[in-house]
Specification:
single chain; about 425 residues; alpha+beta; Nucleotidyltransferase, domain 5; four-stranded antiparallel beta sheet
């Protein structure tokens, strides 16, 4: 068999120089039949090894019968059913060739998003320990939102995955966009809703005038944009970074997203920031009022004068003891009010099972405790004075016996007889 270079030279000499097959053969030193075969073929020569068959050929009918009954049957099960005694590699290759004939076609359609149409949401749990204070570290969730049309990404770390923190996280991220997508796509996250929205999140969707679409369980393709964004964050943002706390994490993440949203996106063949203005212009306007906190806690403050949010306890001014207080929490602050009076304001504690005490509350509690102790002592003294009184000798006796003792000592001092006494 001649080489490709010889085949190309034969055709050139014959067609360009007009040499005959005999002349070409004489000049190249090859046989005339070889030249004739080269001129007759319009494809370069290619070595082909003759087929020798395979050990799978003998069992292919049995394999086809099993695939006809169960198209998804694993190769290991097929090998067991047909009594396969050879290596699994050649059997696996043959089954891979045969299986598509017995499986229905399942094409994946390419989704095209219109400007402002939707955004996909998800929680990303970064595999890095973030200091949370009080000697603790953890891996809090990160709320990630990706716009479908522009592919702009926004994200923020949250203290927890509870409904209140998710609503507050949505509000802060969408406020940064200054717009609301017409649809928010979520999977069955507990804080958002499983099968149906929680009442708090439904109220939040009503405030935004948007629709929240819950995907079917185990359907990651329904929100592939945000799933890929999570992977992008994990491989491009996270490596080599060190964080001093959640605030530092959010600061670094915000700065990095400004760069990431300016990078060329292969699937849309554009930079997300170049499509953002058209995307945002088609979105809904952000409501002019903040969410009115549909998740406040109302409770009567006990003598302990602490309230619990998530797993942490926060002190409240003791003047609210015995009164009904309202607790409002977001991802940054805990506020407690008693009527119109703000009786506590604390920064949100990200650590778990901690007691956060305001020094002013502790000092007020000590003062009130001292006043209570003095009042109790005064009441005890008054009660004692009402029951006991000194007799003529200065000895305290019960008032009901005071007259008897005084008469007795008067008789003694007057020289009464022994019998009289």
């Amino acid at each position: 068999m001649i080489h490709v270079e010889d085949w190309a030279e034969i055709r050139r000499m014959h067609r360009t120089e007009g040499l005959s097959a005999r002349a070409v053969a004489r000049r190249l030193g090859i046989s005339r039949n070889t030249v004739l075969r080269a001129l007759a073929s319009d494809r370069p020569p290619q070595y082909r090894r003759p087929l020798k068959g395979s050990a799978v050929d003998a069992v292919e009918p049995a394999v086809r019968e099993l695939l006809n009954q169960t198209p998804t049957m694993p190769v290991t099960v097929i090998a067991e059913r047909i009594g396969w005694q050879h290596g699994l590699t050649i059997l696996r290759e043959r089954v891979r060739e045969l299986r598509p004939a017995y499986l229905p076609a399942d094409p994946v359609s390419r989704t095209v998003y219109e400007p402002g149409e939707l955004a996909q949401c998800d929680l990303w749990f970064p595999p890095v320990d973030v200091p949370l204070g009080y000697g603790q570290s953890g891996r809090p969730p990160v709320l990630v939102i990706v716009s479908g049309y522009s592919r702009v990404i926004t994200a923020r770390m949250l203290p927890s995955r509870q409904t209140g923190d998710l609503i507050d996280g949505h509000w802060r991220l969408l406020t940064g966009w200054r717009a609301v997508p017409k649809t928010l796509v979520w999977d069955n996250e507990t804080g958002v809703g499983k099968g149906r929205l929680t009442s708090e999140f439904a109220a939040f969707a009503g405030l935004l005038a948007t629709r929240v679409h819950l995907c079917r369980p185990r359907d990651p393709e329904a929100k592939g944009l945000v799933e890929r964004a999570n992977g992008y964050l994990e491989t491009s943002f996270l490596p080599g970074r060190v964080f001093t706390g959640p605030d530092d994490f959010n600061a670094q993440l915000t700065a990095w997203l400004q760069i990431a949203n300016r990078r060329h996106h292969r699937s849309i063949d554009a930079r997300p920031v170049d499509r953002w203005e058209a995307d945002r212009a088609a979105m809904l306007t952000i409501p002019p009022v903040d969410p009115p906190h549909w998740w406040p806690l109302r409770t009567r403050l006990g003598r302990d004068h602490y309230i619990r949010v998530d797993t942490c306890d926060y002190s409240v001014h003791p003047r609210a003891i015995g009164h009904v207080v309202q607790v409002r929490s977001d991802i940054e602050e805990i506020t407690v009010t008693c009527g119109e009076d703000v009786v506590a304001r604390h920064a949100r504690c990200w650590a778990r099972h901690q007691s956060v005490t305001d020094p002013e509350h502790a000092a007020a509690a000590r003062v009130l405790r001292g006043e209570v102790i003095h009042q109790q002592a005064a009441r005890a003294a008054a009660a004692r004075a009402a029951i006991w009184a000194p007799n003529s000798l200065g000895i305290e006796v019960e008032q009901r016996e005071l007259g008897t003792y005084d008469r007795m000592f008067t008789l003694i001092e007057g020289g009464a007889g022994k019998e009289d006494t």
